[in-house]
Amino acid sequence: MSRAETTEDAPETAMIRVKNLTKVHHSDGTDVHAIRGIDLVVHSGEFVAVMGPSGSGKSTVLHLLAGLVPATGGEIWLRGRRLGGLSEAERAVLRRRHVGVVFQFFNLISNMTVADNVELPALLAGAGPKQARSRREYLLDELGLTDRADAPPTRLSGGQQQRVALARALANEPSLLLADEPTGNLDSTNTRDVIRLLEKVHDQGQTILLVTHDVRVASAADRVISLFDGMIVDDAAVSPASGAASSIGSILDL
Amino acid sequence: MRSLLLAPITGAANRTALINRQRRHLINLMRGLTEPAAERDNPIAVLLVEGARSHLQAGLDWLQRCQEEPA
After folding, report:
1. Which residues in chain A have Cβ-Cβ distances shorter than 8 Å to B56?
2. Which of A53, A65, A217, B70 would you label with A206, given CA atoms 20 to 30 Å apart?
3. CB within 8 A of B11, min separation 6: which ones?
4. Does some domain include residue A169?
5. Domain span at residue B20?
6. Residues A67 and A95 sit within 8 Å (Cβ to Cβ)
7. ipTM, 2 decimals?
8. Which of A188, A218, A228 sits opposite B67 (nearest CB)?
């Protein structure tokens, strides 16, 4: 049975459940159909990468799942709770307690230090100062940012800000991490550090759904969903290729 | 790749299915590209792995370009 056929799973077994999701943007008197009827189930503990060309609807799906923008049609359940049935305040509480979001443009608070940016979500969710600090120190260390803890985000490079945004999203140990191009501004070494951290939190049982163009990030996932023109055109498990054709020599034609 | 380029002309294959198959193949190849810890200190091995990654990324980018082209 294909992944696309698993939409009838019980909501409580799914971290994310989406039924016939649509999103229409109204721009200059024209309707733009960004999402055209998506059905999707992401189980707890899964690591899912979403790929697709620019304009295929990847970021829109992520924003819809985070409850940041309203759907035009269809339903989304997060942890069994129907987003459409929640008030804005209830959605904010759900996000604060259970969801970490990494935005494409970081959205860090510029007049706070890196340390405070990362600790804030944990403190808002009810963690004690000591616990929030310990988690922040761990995350910044994992992402090679310990020496930037006291700097404001505006003094950091794009790649460093991106890693701070990831640390902030993970501060709460959310059961669901949603990330929009979390390695989009990173070089090879920093991309490797981010993938390692994602693999660690995945091993700890967190569910990850991220949007990426990077084959290296996608290959770390359990499953890759491909979007095109607002629809899912492929949904496949990732498994390592084996045999002579998969060797570096054959890839590079050495 | 030839079958992908010729699919709209010959009608012999479903272009979306070809793109999906090739994308899966590239991602699975990437998954199989391990970087043993010992090799991280070997600059030649690191360069080879990075070269293979770059090839796979270029292949994936090209597939997206094919996808954007009207059938």
Report:
1. 215, 251
2. A53
3. none
4. yes
5. 2-68
6. yes
7. 0.85
8. A228
